[in-house]
UniProtKB/TrEMBL annotation:
Residues 31-50 bind DNA. It comes from Micromonospora endophytica. Residues 8-68 form the HTH tetR-type domain. Keywords: DNA-binding, Repressor, Transcription, Transcription regulation. This is TetR family transcriptional regulator. One of its GO terms (molecular function) is DNA binding. It comes from the Bacteria. Signal peptide: none annotated.
Length: 200
């Protein structure tokens, strides 16, 4: 009987391996051979799934997104949609070892995107997806009145994305402590709530 190959499981293994290699060596050291070795997979097998560096980067990003989505599904619902949005934002900030690992990869790829248009395209796709998710949550907050009903949804989402990027860089460079990052997030959300008259 022929062996049944789980292609999705192999892709996940390679995505996780690409993340580990990226975290250690940066994009320059992320070769198919290195990723195959990390995954404990024959080089020819890895090449079948990830024949180019662009595909390796996409596999790594897909793996990171899957990790974040899995955590997002476990987020408890807050008393208001704005509270739920705050919890979601906290999940995206590198406040523990797991999220620091993810953020390091994002920062490595962000630096590499300055000279590699293919990596830049991957990051743009992910940024668009993040903005879409933030806009969806902001729309829910506007609908339940936890922020102003006339709030500019794209502008609020954009501000949150900028906040996330800034906090992530400052946390990874140790210019900010986790407690300080939480305080900045709380202050940002207090201002959003105050606009709607819901503060306190």
């Amino acid at each position: 009987m022929p062996k049944v190959v789980d292609h999705e499981e192999r892709r996940r293994r390679l995505g996780a391996a690409a993340c580990a290699v990226l975290s250690r060596t940066g994009a320059a050291g992320t070769t198919v051979r290195a990723v195959a070795g990390e995954a404990g997979m024959p080089l020819a097998t890895a090449q079948h799934y990830l024949p180019t560096r662009e595909l390796m980067v996409r596999a790594a990003m897909a793996h990171l997104v899957e990790r974040v989505v899995d955590r997002a599904r476990a987020i408890r619902t807050g008393p208001t949609a704005l509270d739920t949005l705050r919890l979601a934002v906290l999940e995206l900030v590198p406040l523990d070892a797991e999220r620091i690992f993810e953020a390091r990869i994002w920062l490595v790829l962000t630096a590499e995107s300055l000279i590699d248009e293919r990596i830049a395209a991957v990051l743009r796709d992910n940024a668009v997806e993040l903005r879409g998710n933030l806009e969806r949550l902001v729309t829910q907050a506007r609908a339940d009145g936890s922020i102003a009903v006339d709030a500019d949804v794209p502008a609020v989402a954009s501000g949150l994305a900028t906040l996330l990027d800034g906090l992530t860089v400052r946390l990874l460079s140790t210019a900010l402590t986790p407690a300080e990052a939480r305080a900045e997030i709380d202050n940002h959300f207090a201002r959003l709530a105050a606009v709607s008259g819901c503060e306190g």
